[in-house]
Amino acid sequence: MTGFSHPPFERGRSMSSKIENIKNQLLSDNWYVLRKYTYDLIKRNGERQPQVREVYDRGNGATILLYNRSKKTVLLINQFRMPTYVNGNTSGMLLETCAGLLDNDSPEDCIRKEAIEETGYAISKVKKLFEAYMSPGSVTEVVHFFAAEYDDSQRVTAGGGIDDEDIEVLELPFILALEMIRDGRIKDGKTIMLLHYAQIQGWMA
To answer: Which residues contact 166 (CB under 8 A, 6 or more apart)?
Structure first.
């Protein structure tokens, strides 16, 4: 096969373009921070191209797949998500893995706290899997992905979230959760990534 180049992707190395003359304008600081950036993109061929982008900064987050090997089940939550309602989800309800913003916590501390608040399970040992930009075209957020095994003895509260949250906790057969991805009942990106990761790793085999 010809016509393709395969440059070495090294951590911290600039692969192509760079930007200069960066200016930013604060558009909103009502909930999180929305800024408009203007800059010159210096393309790989040396051409200078002015660009304008709006960037939403809501901080970084963490999510976790809670799974039980013996029962071959996973814990998911169901809650109302206004942006999905605006974009065609008639109920606004979304099935998801437990997740939350880091705020001032470490990713590990954040996800343990979120697990208790949202699902009611006190999880002590969590495994970091990977990190990912979830919407890099407009949102700064990096999400830290975790997994942990759970059992019934770890449930210390009913869960359901805090403050204005109204969260339903669901324990689903793993094979059903995979089917729900295929038929569209699960559409949340981070949840799909974690369920497929568990499938690839053979945790429920």
So the answer is: 79, 80, 160
